[in-house]
Structure formats: C-alpha cells, structure tokens
Amino acid sequence: MFDFSPDDKKKFYEDLENLDKTDSEREDEGHLESIRLLRGSPTHLSTSRGSFTGRRVARTLTAFDQNAHRAISRESSSRHFPLSLIRSQSEPQPMQPQISLSHPREKSVSFRHLGLKKSASSSSLSSREMAPASKSIHEKGKGKKRSRPTQEIQLAQIFQGLVFFFVPNNTHNNARRMRIELAQKRGAIWAKEWSTAQITHVIADKDVKYAWLLSHLNLTEIPSNISVVSEHFIPDSIAAGLQDPARPRYRIEGQVVQPPNRTAVELPAESDRSLQVKPAKKDVSLTGPDTQSTVVASSIGTAVLHDALNDSTRASKSNRNQAQYNDELAQVIKETKPFAHLPLSDESDDAGADQPDDLDHEEGPPRKAPRLDIASEASVDKWQKSFQCMHKNEGNLERQNPNAYTIGILSEMAQYYDNGHDDFRLMSYRRAVASLQKCDTLITTKDQALKLGRVGPSIAEKIEEIVTTKGLRKLENAKSDPREVAIQLFLRVYGCGKALAEEWYAKGYRTLEDLEKEKLTSNQRIGVDHYEDFNTRIPRAEVEAHGKVVMDALEVVAPGYKATIMGSYRRGTKDCGDIDMLITKENTAVETVATVVFEQLVPYLTETGFLVASLATPHANGGTKWHGASLLPASSLPSGSKPLWRRIDFLVVPESEMGAALLYFTGDDIFNRSMRLLASKKKMRLNQRGLYKDVIRGPNRERLTEGTLVEGKSEQGIFEALGVPYRPPHHRICG
DNA sequence: TTAGCCGGTTA
DNA sequence: TAACCG
DNA sequence: CTAA
Ligand SMILES: O=c1ccn([C@H]2C[C@H](O)[C@@H](COP(=O)(O)OP(=O)(O)OP(=O)(O)O)O2)c(=O)[nH]1
Ligand SMILES: [Mg+2]
C-alpha cells in the first residue's frame, strides 16, 4: 500500500539509523583536536550597549524611510515568479499526491522533537541526511533532558510526496513554524518559492483571505492541481490521517466553491508561461473529476473513500480528532514557548504588524505617475523630508543620555530580531533607538515617545513598559526561549546566517561545541574559532593602532599610498565592530592600486603576522575589497595582555571615486540605504563608486540601465546632486 | 495597503 | 544560485 | 515596525 520511491525508502532507513545513534556516535570524523573556543586569557564579550549595532540587517527587506515611492511609476502588469524551484525533468519527482494512506500508527505520537528540516527548495528529496531528531526541545522544569529516539520515529509519513506552500510562507509566526515543522516531519516538502509545477497544497493561515492570497501569489486563479486549504488541514491530517482538501472546513475566506467536475488541466495561462516546461505534474487529467476526492484514513488505519463534496458522514468524528489534535498542538506550543503570551514574533501581538508579512509582492494597483521633476524644488522638498538622510542624526555621543536604560533594553530587544525574525522590526528598533539617542529628556510615556518620530505605537508602548516596570516582558521571553538563545548564538559566528542557524538548531545543536560535528566552511571555521574575539567591540584607540600598522606598512611597501580609517570610526563612535580602511593613491588607476594592495601590502602584512586570516579576497574583475582578520603585535600592548583577532576590511578606491567611497564606507548602513533610496526615487542610482542619473528601472525597482555618472569624486558633490544638505560623518548615525 | 539599497564573495 | 557579508 |  505504501508508495515509497527507492530513494525515499533508502532515506527512511538512513534516518532510522541516525535516530538511534547518539550524538557522539554520529560524529562523522574523529575531529581530534577539539577546538578550544575559550582562550586562556579572559576576554569579555562586551555586548556594548550604548553604541549598539546589530549584526548586519538582512538584505532583501528592511525598514526605514518613508515611502516617497508612491511617486514612482510602475508597470502593473509585471509578473515575476521565482524560478528557483524549476527543475529539470530528468530529476525524480517524488510525488504521489492523491493516494497516500496514512500508516497505522501509534495513537499518542510524540510531538516533542520538532526540527527536522528538509531542504525544500532543493530539488532532490534524498539530498540531505536527516538530523538526529533526538533532542527534546524544551523541558522547562521537566526532568527529561533527552527523549528516547527510537519511539519517536514512528511518524506516519502521511504527507509523503506532497509539496506545501504556506501563506505566508515563512516561520515568523510560531504556530505556523510549528505546522511547517510538523508537516515536514511527516514527509511533506516545504516549497519556499512558488512553483505551479510542484506544489500540491497551499496552506493558508486562517486569517488569510482568498483574494489576498491570489494577489500575494500574483495569480488570477489557483491551478486546479493545487489544493488551497486552511491551516487546519495540517493538524487534522496529523490527527486523523490525510484529510480531504475539499472539505468546507479547509476553505478559506472568500474562496469560491469549485464545481466537482471541472476541467483539470487549465493552468493560469499567464503565470505559467514563464515557467516553460514542467514535468507534467502527475497527470491531473487522468484522475479526472475525482481529483478532489481523496482517500482518507481513519485513525485506526482503515481507508475510507469519501466523495469530495460529501463529508457530512465524517464530520463528527473528525471534529473529535480535530479537538484532540488541537490539544496536542497547544501543548507543543506551550512547551516550546513557556511564556505563550508575548512571543517574539506573534502576528496578533503587535500593532498592524505582518499580516501580509514580508514577501515581495509584485505591484498592486498601478501607481500614480512620477511627478517628480527634480527641478520643482518646492514639491520635492515635501516628500524628501521623510528621508532619514535629510535630517541631522547626531548621536549625542558624549553626554549621558537620560534614556540610556531604555535604549539598552530596546537595543537588546532588537538583537533578537536580528536576521532571525523580521528585518523590518530590526530596522524600526534601530531607528527608534536613534531617536531616543538624540533626545535629551527622559521619555516616560507612550505619548511622549510617539512624538519623537520613528517611534510608533508598538515601540512607544514598550518604552513605557520599560520605564515603568524596569523591564520588558517580550525581551525576557526571548531570553528564556532556548530556541532564540541558540539561534542568536549561531548567528554570531561569522559565516553563519539565518538559514544555517535554523538548520543547526533543527539538527539539535545548541552550543558552539556542537558545531564541531558539522563540516564548516573555512570562513565559518574561523568564525567559530574566534567567536569571542570577533564579537568583541574594538575600542577606538585600538582601531587607530591597527590603522597605524597598515599605514606604516604602506610607507614601506608602497610609499605615496594613503589609508584612511572609515566605518563607525569615522563617525566617531567610541568603539567599533571592525576596522574599515580605504586605500587610495592619487593619479593612479584602480587596477594598479588594487594590485599593489592585494599583491604587496596584504602579503607583507601577512608575513609580519599582522594579518592572520583572509575571509574574502577580490575575485571579480576589478575587485577592490579584501576582508580578513588582523592581530596587533603583542609587543605593542601592555605586557600580559593578549591581542584579540579583529575583523579588518580594505577597500581600494581610485581618486575619481573617493567621494562615493567615503560616503559608502562611512555609513551607517541605514543612512546609506536612505540616500540610495532617495536616489532611486530621483531616477538615479547611488553606490560605492558614484551617483548616476537617468537610470531606468524595471518592475521591482530592478535596475535596467547603468545610468550616466553624475558625481563620484566629491562627497559633498554627491550630497548636492541629490539635494541633501551635507551631513558630517557624526550626523550620519541613523541606527 | 504598501514598501523597505546595492553590490561583491563563497561554495 | 542561495546564503552571507558589508 | 513605521510612515504614507
Ligand atoms: O548593509 C550595509 C552594510 C554596510 N554598509 C556600509 C556602511 C558602513 O558604515 C560600512 C562599513 O560596514 P561595517 O559593517 O563595518 O559597519 P560600521 O558602520 O563600520 O559599524 P561597525 O562598528 O559595526 O563596524 O559599510 C552599507 O552601506 N550597507
Ligand atoms: Mg566597521
């Protein structure tokens, strides 16, 4: 009765084996010398408060400036589908949608071991080993640290061969994350990108409306071979066997009821064209009108065939199952989140938060025409004001800020959104903190906070909570959530981002030592080995010392070359995350400067013992940057103290691009993004090399033409050309 | 309801 | 190409 | 999370 492909079967047994092993047994190779993470000398991990900067905010989406984008014109007809899921037909397609029966299985399934994560968007099912799902997740107060692995693998693979797409398709919400993980554990594949060809089910959150879903997916219609179901589908199926997607219970709001016999093959003409071939998705046409009826297994394993439109017979029973399941899920959630209220990312928690979540839709309604001729100063002024870069962002660096405590807490809070959760929120927190920083009166109430600007209802409330209760519940929750703690830990290893951190967590890793079981990339290796060093901020004076070493070396190796310390140092912060150096020489081509720097300076400093690791070396034609690590000579320090490994970056710049490079390399990142967005609103483009005009952009603000250079040499010139009053470096602290 | 910088390197 | 970094 |  089971329909396993050979691959699946093989994997199943591999998983079985893995699950029985203990961690130590599983260790692939006898990584002999266990790397000592804690060095002899006591270094402190100073998560410096005042000048908080998170890890770099994640790329795609980030919050900041207001939208002047209403002004930008757009193609409303744009239709983009991520192609990443498209695969060649030759690859095995593990799909047997309609027929899978649930295994007969234990009544009481353990939900404890979540965390297996199939790499869904990667094409092959069998690709990755599954981790030992042997760690219990949260054992708040309960004695059992480790559950018995063997009994936990008896999960019926009821979703085997099914490909789920969730809406929203992320794990920001704990309940949804739970559903996704549960589904995966039972054989489902989580499609991270939309793919008409592969996805079998769309699982929508209960509050998602059908119309919103369509626009979210950029579809006019859901292909008939894909079932749209509400979130209940997952728990129900787990509790009572694979459910019929057509049940009214799984209908989402605003969904039209499909007639029982529809022609199966119609695919959305438009959307699929770009996706060319697809492995003719399990002949939907062959299954005919019965496509939507499905075999449903009762909880004792007896299969019953139900007519799609007639599920009344089963109603009461599945309700019971449903209830039972809900209990189980509720329990999981409770175990996972000891403080179920105020979870780190709960959609219902925060004001107007993320129903639509992130996710780049294409466009909604067609935009109004641009109307921004740069000439019309008056009108320009208005919308421009909303950009951060238009304002003085003085740090209030010196004197003690009355809001220091609040700032500290909020900054800490922001850390937890760093990469892991919402990049939007992270940016908002940073901006709010910056607002507080330049405020010199103590903020105690919501209303005061709201007046600051860049502080909205949500953070305002938190500020009030902080000053009145001296704490922030949400932060305490995060801190006491082992998942958050572990993810945060991993995110701080250089070379580990959100994806890997979650993968590691899912594999049961909780400490840096656990990572020794993993094959790390060379950069990650360094990141782990020098975890503490890299996460320790660098006092200004030490930054200068590193800078001096480089400058002195240049004197020797390449006289006439000039090095300048950039980044947070140039902004005047009292400590820095790394050392950023710009290297240039007058009247000299970049290629020349680059050659000298990368083939002479770097090797020289490496021999000296100053440069101790290289993390990224120029690769592209005209590569201009080098990332690595440096170490001050012990002789230069007070005796007894050991130098720390520091992150150091070189950027090679020709004279003609000095202005843009200064601008870029001075930051901060939020300021830069603000400037760049402003540029794009003016049909221009700003990068580390210059400001360009007449840039043509496509649908997603995607750049279609390079544009022509306006200014690159003078930093001030760029401000002028953009119509932004010049801001000295210390006024560019926006986050 | 919507959008949120831009580019280079690694594997 | 996706993930990561600045 | 924020501002438009
Ligand atoms: O996403 C980013 C990251 C960095 N930068 C620029 C601005 C930043 O100032 C400079 C150097 O980056 P770094 O990560 O060193 O930031 P920093 O401002 O120097 O702060 P830190 O003290 O953490 O080094 O690169 C951006 O434009 N966008
Ligand atoms: Mg820096």
From TrEMBL:
<feature type="region of interest" description="Disordered">
    <location>
        <begin position="268"/>
        <end position="292"/>
    </location>
</feature>
<dbReference type="InterPro" id="IPR018944">
    <property type="entry name" value="DNA_pol_lambd_fingers_domain"/>
</dbReference>
<dbReference type="InterPro" id="IPR043519">
    <property type="entry name" value="NT_sf"/>
</dbReference>
<feature type="compositionally biased region" description="Basic and acidic residues">
    <location>
        <begin position="270"/>
        <end position="284"/>
    </location>
</feature>
<dbReference type="GO" id="GO:0006303">
    <property type="term" value="P:double-strand break repair via nonhomologous end joining"/>
</dbReference>
<feature type="region of interest" description="Disordered">
    <location>
        <begin position="88"/>
        <end position="107"/>
    </location>
</feature>
<dbReference type="InterPro" id="IPR027421">
    <property type="entry name" value="DNA_pol_lamdba_lyase_dom_sf"/>
</dbReference>
<dbReference type="Pfam" id="PF14716">
    <property type="entry name" value="HHH_8"/>
</dbReference>
<dbReference type="GO" id="GO:0005634">
    <property type="term" value="C:nucleus"/>
</dbReference>
<keyword id="KW-0239">DNA-directed DNA polymerase</keyword>
<dbReference type="InterPro" id="IPR029398">
    <property type="entry name" value="PolB_thumb"/>
</dbReference>
<keyword id="KW-0456">Lyase</keyword>
<keyword id="KW-0235">DNA replication</keyword>
<feature type="compositionally biased region" description="Acidic residues">
    <location>
        <begin position="346"/>
        <end position="361"/>
    </location>
</feature>
<feature type="active site" description="Nucleophile; Schiff-base intermediate with DNA; for 5'-dRP lyase activity">
    <location>
        <position position="462"/>
    </location>
</feature>
<dbReference type="GO" id="GO:0003887">
    <property type="term" value="F:DNA-directed DNA polymerase activity"/>
</dbReference>
<dbReference type="Pfam" id="PF14792">
    <property type="entry name" value="DNA_pol_B_palm"/>
</dbReference>
<dbReference type="InterPro" id="IPR036420">
    <property type="entry name" value="BRCT_dom_sf"/>
</dbReference>
<dbReference type="InterPro" id="IPR028207">
    <property type="entry name" value="DNA_pol_B_palm_palm"/>
</dbReference>
<feature type="region of interest" description="Disordered">
    <location>
        <begin position="342"/>
        <end position="374"/>
    </location>
</feature>
<feature type="region of interest" description="Disordered">
    <location>
        <begin position="117"/>
        <end position="149"/>
    </location>
</feature>
<dbReference type="InterPro" id="IPR002054">
    <property type="entry name" value="DNA-dir_DNA_pol_X"/>
</dbReference>
<dbReference type="InterPro" id="IPR010996">
    <property type="entry name" value="HHH_MUS81"/>
</dbReference>
<keyword id="KW-0539">Nucleus</keyword>
<dbReference type="InterPro" id="IPR001357">
    <property type="entry name" value="BRCT_dom"/>
</dbReference>
<keyword id="KW-0479">Metal-binding</keyword>
<dbReference type="GO" id="GO:0003677">
    <property type="term" value="F:DNA binding"/>
</dbReference>
<dbReference type="InterPro" id="IPR022312">
    <property type="entry name" value="DNA_pol_X"/>
</dbReference>
<dbReference type="Pfam" id="PF14791">
    <property type="entry name" value="DNA_pol_B_thumb"/>
</dbReference>
<feature type="compositionally biased region" description="Low complexity">
    <location>
        <begin position="117"/>
        <end position="127"/>
    </location>
</feature>
<dbReference type="GO" id="GO:0046872">
    <property type="term" value="F:metal ion binding"/>
</dbReference>
<comment type="similarity">
    <text>Belongs to the DNA polymerase type-X family.</text>
</comment>
<dbReference type="Pfam" id="PF10391">
    <property type="entry name" value="DNA_pol_lambd_f"/>
</dbReference>
<dbReference type="GO" id="GO:0016829">
    <property type="term" value="F:lyase activity"/>
</dbReference>
<keyword id="KW-0237">DNA synthesis</keyword>
<keyword id="KW-0548">Nucleotidyltransferase</keyword>
<dbReference type="InterPro" id="IPR002008">
    <property type="entry name" value="DNA_pol_X_beta-like"/>
</dbReference>
<protein>
    <recommendedName>
        <fullName>DNA polymerase lambda</fullName>
        <ecNumber>2.7.7.7</ecNumber>
    </recommendedName>
</protein>
<keyword id="KW-0227">DNA damage</keyword>
<feature type="domain" description="BRCT">
    <location>
        <begin position="154"/>
        <end position="241"/>
    </location>
</feature>
<dbReference type="InterPro" id="IPR037160">
    <property type="entry name" value="DNA_Pol_thumb_sf"/>
</dbReference>
<keyword id="KW-0234">DNA repair</keyword>
